[in-house]
Amino acid sequence: MRTRVWTVIKTLLITMAAGLILSRSTFQANNTVESVRRYTRSIEFDYVNWTIQSLFIKNKSTSLGLNRYLSDEEGREIVNAYFRQVDEINALRSEISAIYADPEITDPGKMAEDANRRLAEMEDENKQMAALCETVLQQQVSTVAAEMGLSAGGQLIPPLLYHVTPLPMALIVSPRDTIRQDADISLLADLSLEDIVDLEQHIEQEMDVSALVVNIGGVGIYPTMVLRSTDLSWMIETIAHEWVHNFLTLRPMGMLYESTPEMRTMNETTANLAGKEIALRVYERFYPQFVPQETTGDEENPAEETAEPPEFDYRAEMHETRVTVDQLLQDGKIGEAEQYMETRRLFFREHGYQIRRINQAYFAFYGAYADEPGGQAGEDPVGPAVRKLRQQSDSLAKFLNRISWMTSFDNLQKEVSGGQ
Length: 420
Known about the structure:
Oligomer: single chain
Radius of gyration: 23 Å
Order of helices and strands: HHHHHHEEEHEEEHHHHHHHHHH
Strand content: 5-15%
Number of helices: 17
Largest sheet: 3 strands, mixed
Distance between the termini: 46 Å
């Protein structure tokens, strides 16, 4: 009976969370969004159908309850086996690409027949393994988050559910005279680069705005969407990050995600900070090989005394770029700012960072992730305030319970100035 009651409650929570998160993902009340959608309606991602299908898949895998019978060691082996297979799939894809790229192979289709057959078999097997791997990682992250005080009666609300899937791309639109995200529209995952460039140019020319299509690693709908990866540490952090968005969406700050640029930065910075903390605990508990090694200070030649300054500091250089662009735009020098950003893009490229475009939309998107000093956020005061509140909070649970009920950046500033 207890299991049945929890199943009913869980179903209601899932339905409630899905409705809230979908509303956040699709509702942006401003004229810019509707104007942009004139160019994107036919290529927008369908969240409703994806969510229905994913909830069905998750319900099917969860109902088996396999995770209840797995030891920690068995769970780790399932996860490791899944990631080994993803590595093998990627290697096979590279082998097929090399066959088609070789000008000396006259019939690449025939040459790649066996590899394509093996790839299809491995992809089918990987889908089955993915469901079990997701169940294990969900349980591991949920267990740790509950131990950190983020549960109610031992259960996360909403329950942690994620699904590995090809992710939509995000079309970001900003004004040209200031850095501000006015639109974030999810597009189909398989758009070609040619289609992307055409869309950006068309919107910029017709609307006199800055546009950029970016790749993303996760989406905080329900179940959350996570990109398939061979990097387990990145995957765990992303799973935790996106669940934090689910957590926040059931509270004022998350519900007001789109209300102001400051609220968006508060949400994303909070999710980054919390996601990293939860992930670190998961590493310590289940995957100690990912725990960063701390130096004791007893080394004969401490690194801080002998190491040369880094030849190229990406975050410092990007911070300088953002600060300079903000000043140029404030002075009304839009053309000069855009020319400067292109010059800096080429500068980053010379140092190994292959950034396709740097424009106002680029900073409007990436600047919201301000969990570390510097970088694309420039001198934006929101990130430092969020980080300070975390420092003032005794635990992650207390931090999330404080910030999640805030409805404005003013609330955060007052809390930080008065918090001890």
